[in-house]
Automatic annotation (TrEMBL):
It comes from Alcaligenes xylosoxydans xylosoxydans (Achromobacter xylosoxidans). InterPro entries: AIG2-like_dom, GGCT-like, GGCT-like_sf. This is Gamma-glutamylcyclotransferase AIG2-like domain-containing protein. Residues 5-131 form the Gamma-glutamylcyclotransferase AIG2-like domain. CDD domains: GGCT_like.
């Protein structure tokens, strides 16, 4: 049984918690990348990682859809420090992700938005793409 997940931050390819590398590191079946997609929301900056706040005002966040083995969801829970029934920054929820491919139907995915109560002083990110934002932010920092 496969599960679809939407990743928008450090679990994306090339990021610090790259989903493919995390799976390989635990000997789990590889995640199958299905393509880029968006979900309703906005990003906030926690420094080394983003948070996604669901919003219903038309803003969207860019990320990727993967098809994963259920064991990989447990690893993602670990990475995101998510335990069902316990308070934490991230929560695991379902969302309809809209693939960027023309004429593609929405895909029901698991994803990890943040609990708004944990936002604190995290600044809004004006971009819909964590990777582009992080790279631009790094380019502005002095060497």
């Amino acid at each position: 049984m496969s599960i679809y997940v939407f990743v928008y931050g450090t679990l994306r390819a090339g990021e610090i918690n790259d989903l493919a590398k995390a799976a390989a590191g635990r000997g789990l079946p590889p995640a199958r990348h299905l393509g880029a997609a968006t979900v309703p929301g906005m990003l906030v900056d926690f420094g080394d990682w983003p948070g996604l706040l669901p919003v219903a005002d038309g803003r969207r966040v860019l990320g990727d859809i993967y098809e994963v083995d259920p064991a990989l969801v447990a690893l993602m829970d670990e990475i995101e420090e998510y335990t069902p029934g316990r308070p934490g920054c991230f929560v695991r929820r379902q969302v309809l992700a809209q693939p960027l491919a023309p004429d593609a139907d929405p895909v029901a995915c698991e994803y990890y938005p943040i609990d708004p109560a944990w936002r604190g002083a995290a600044a809004d990110i004006d971009s819909d793409d964590w990777i582009a934002y992080r790279q631009a932010r790094a380019a502005r920092l002095p060497p």
